């Protein structure tokens, strides 16, 4: 199947006159829910397509695992290095996704909306029944898994989005997105010195504030792991292996912040986080993909990621 020309950041005009990166809007945003016009909440109906390099997709996979939704929402994984034809399912036998039969992600975007002119991105949720992308709203996906999919959670699943904290978490997540999750991309994709420097300061000012917050609190919202922690984690897990060098956010490494570093290790040591964190894939994806500006495709050997397994002591530090 022909997938046509691959859409790039330039095509969708994500770089402004001032050299600043402005991320494209999501296109498939119909909410999941039980009201008319929503995507029905059903077990076995949807397939989440992701790549281990991608922080926006990673957060969704962590939430699915923590909530025990793996049997409810199936997961298809593209290889970490985006090809000239877009995300490729080369990790699968014969190089095609076994459920959807696609080789490249843009195939299913084209099938879903022939008029779609944006980048074909992960995460993408496909309605298996229709064989179409129905949602790529990465900002809100975890909220759906945590709320409307609640009747399908495993027994004793954690409450990652507690009612009384929802508004606070939403507000916090927006700041986290603007200044850190997407802040690193603003630095990495900047096309002017000023745009890069503004983003660099945004990132490190926010990290300084989070370092202070996590010196007083085991997780972002007290003693309970929430959606906000998943979102912070996916950026921290990529910081030293990718962003520090590839995106030039190099005032400090994650390992230079004692509280953030111990907090990140604590999360990594929870199976849902460790099982879905592939540092080698992250490194390949940022260095060898289009982000890397690495003409000879040389993959750095460091940093040593075995240190993610060292003791964190956060449980002792915040004994109830
Ligand atoms: N859907 C969002 C976020 C998701 C996103 O950027 N995903 C990246 C991987 S981390 C992607 O799939 N990029 C494909 C491309 O740019 O062609 C967007 O369009 O900016």
Distinctive features:
4-stranded mixed β-sheet; 11 helices; 320 residues; alpha+beta; 2 domains; Glutaredoxin; Glutathione S-transferase Yfyf (Class Pi), Chain A, domain 2; binds glutathione
Structure characterization notes:
- The chain has 320 residues and is an alpha+beta fold.
- It has two domains: 1-157, Glutaredoxin, CATH 3.40.30.10; 163-317, Glutathione S-transferase Yfyf (Class Pi), Chain A, domain 2 (Up-down Bundle), CATH 1.20.1050.10.
- It is built from eleven helices and four strands; from the N terminus they run E-H-E-H-E-E-H-H-H-H-H-H-H-H-H.
- A four-stranded mixed beta sheet has the order 2-1-3-4, sandwiched between helices.
- Helix 1 runs antiparallel to helix 7 and helix 4 runs parallel beside helix 7.
- The mean pLDDT is 94.
- It binds glutathione (GSH).
- Glutathione binds at residues 23-24, 26, 54, 56, 82, 86, 119-122, 136, 138.
- Glutathione (GSH) is lined by residues 23-24, 26, 54, 56, 82, 86, 119-122, 136, 138.
Counted beta strands: 4
Number of helices: 11
Number of domains: 2
Sheet with the most strands, sense and barrel status: 4 strands, mixed
Q: Which class of secondary structure composition applies to the elements?
A: alpha+beta
Instruction: Sum up the overall morphology in one term.
Output: globular
Q: Provide the helix percentage.
A: 25-40%
Bound molecules: glutathione
The CATH homologous superfamily of the largest domain is named Glutaredoxin
Low-confidence runs: none
What is CATH's topology name of the largest domain? Glutaredoxin
Rg (CA only): 19 Å
How does CATH name the architecture of the largest domain?
3-Layer(aba) Sandwich
C-alpha termini separation: 58 Å
Strand content: 5-15%
CATH class call of the largest domain: Alpha Beta
- The overall average pLDDT, rounded, is 94
Summarize the helix and strand pattern as letters: EHEHEEHHHHHHHHH
Spatial arrangement of strands, main beta sheet: 2-1-3-4
